[in-house]
Specification:
The protein contains six helices and ten strands, in the order βββαββαβαααβαβββ. With about 230 residues, it is α/β, with parallel strands linked by helices. It has a single domain, classed as 3-Layer(aba) Sandwich (Rossmann fold). Helix 3 packs across helix 4, helix 3 runs parallel beside helix 5 and helix 5 packs parallel to helix 6. Belongs to the ABC transporter superfamily. It holds the Pfam family ABC_tran. This is ABC transporter ATP-binding protein. Keywords: ATP-binding, Glycosyltransferase, Nucleotide-binding, Transferase, Transport.
Length: about 230
């Protein structure tokens, strides 16, 4: 659809494995609408991370198109793709990848400074995001001083730091225990709703499925609508 935040058409990706070819994605089609939270499930090796990497312009498809906010990202220049990644997309991974020498606030402020924002403007916005995620008392704590759930909340705040339209999350709670996983995903979902951001979330956690707007499954390299069994 024309107003889709992310639109994939006939996306293919094949990898060489010795003398064999692994057809990971076979003509994937996807439209992600503004404010929509979509789950992406499938067994290990099914291509979930590859799909997220292509959607996030971290690797090119072998064929097909990727459009972000209507912009043809596949045929765009390197500068345009870099700008789209920086200004349009936020990433959340299974491991937080926070900078250990910086505290929580600094980890969230840094992307805004790189983006060119003045520090006196970046700090209040980063504080707002961290407070919304329940970390108002942990702003000056470094990652080693935070629990696993708190570290992941900081990573989520960092992903929202540059006001993206799209968040791509790859197993964002996969490194957490079930109780913490549930709480962190609730924080992620609430932040996406509050900020009006679309999200594509790859997960093995079927328990999170019912909390998303819809869920897609990768099966034999194709995306199909997931219908939970009764």
């Amino acid at each position: 659809m024309s107003d889709a935040v992310l639109s994939l058409r006939d996306v293919t990706r094949t990898y060489e494995s010795g003398d064999e070819e692994l057809h990971v994605l076979r003509g994937v089609n996807l439209d992600l609408q503004p404010g929509e939270i979509v789950g992406l499930i499938g067994p290990s090796g099914s291509g979930k991370s590859t799909l997220l990497h292509i959607a996030g312009l971290l690797e090119p498809p072998d064929g097909g198109s990727v459009r972000l906010d209507g912009i043809d990202a596949v045929n765009a220049s390197d500068d345009v793709r870099t700008g789209l990644r920086r200004n349009y997309i936020g990433f959340v991974y299974q491991f937080h990848h926070l900078l250990p020498e910086f505290d929580a606030l600094e980890n969230v402020v840094l992307p805004r400074l790189i983006h060119g924002e003045l520090r006196n403007k970046a700090i209040p916005e980063a504080t707002r995001l961290l407070t919304a995620l329940g970390l108002e008392d942990r702003l000056t704590h470094r990652p080693a001083e935070l629990s696993g759930g708190e570290q992941q909340r900081v990573a989520i705040a960092r992903a929202f730091a540059n006001n993206p339209k799209l968040i791509l999350a790859d197993e964002p709670t996969g490194n957490l225990d079930p109780k913490t996983s549930d709480a962190v995903f609730a924080s992620f979902r609430d932040a996406a709703r509050d900020e009006g951001v679309s999200a594509l979330v790859a997960t093995h956690n079927i328990g999170l499925v019912e909390r998303m707007d819809r869920v897609l499954a990768l099966e034999n390299g194709e995306l199909v609508s997931y219908q939970p069994t009764e």
